[in-house]
Amino acid sequence: MPVSIDKTPRHDEATGWSGTAISYRRGEVDPAHYHLEGQLLFATRGVMLVEAADRQWVIPPQRALWIPPLMVHSYSVLSDTELRAVYVSSSLIAACTNFSRNSQVHTISATPLVKELINGLFTGEYNAPIKRKMALLLLEILSETPSGGAELPMPRDERLFRAARELVFNHRWNTSMIDLADIANMSERTFSRQFLRDTGFSFRTWKQRARIYASLDLLADNVSVKQIAYQLGFSCPAAFSAAFRSVMGTTAGEF
After folding, report:
1. Rounded to two decimals, what is the model's pTM?
2. What does the angle CA 107 – CA 111 – CA 117 come to, to the nearest 5 degrees?
3. What would the pLDDT profile of 9-43 be if each residue is shown by its tens digit?
């Protein structure tokens, strides 16, 4: 797949940062590209699946993702999404001497402070010197905040990917493994074996994770646990709550 450089950022070294706000529709894809700057991705609404460094991250409104300069990445939009991308120059990154993980792709929890700083960069309420300090503070937070687990490995095999995409992008949660194996033109046994090989998860476990990640956008929109459970094909709200705790390590309400 060809890789392009994205020349979106527009800032000088004195400023050190810039940002873009983009609206995406569910199913849109931004193909492989890279930036000269570091990039912090945050969705104020919606869920994205980002691929970088041979791994995939699910980015709901409760997470932000750091992508280092020159790192090739792409993303697919799992639901209607409002993206905020903050681009940071190498000189500003260097000014944050505590940012030891600046060369690593990683997620952080989008705490109230992180959200306020990002939102503040996209308003006219602060002057340029203050916004530079806000961008630096974001980098400081990136260097201090523990990574948040939000990985959903997609299959590498094109046939398996086609089946997994049908499940996730079209929300076909009640589709059986037999039907997905048909989509992949495989026997059920081959599908099961190769899915485990490609993702490191059994199909059943992977589907459970995929459903929980799909729920994050609904939770951000204040949809009730009961509605989410039935919308995602769980037998009851208690089953959804147990699965959520198993995958995310906390309850849906606490998250």
Report:
1. 0.76
2. 95
3. 566 677 889 999 999 988 888 899 999 899 999 99
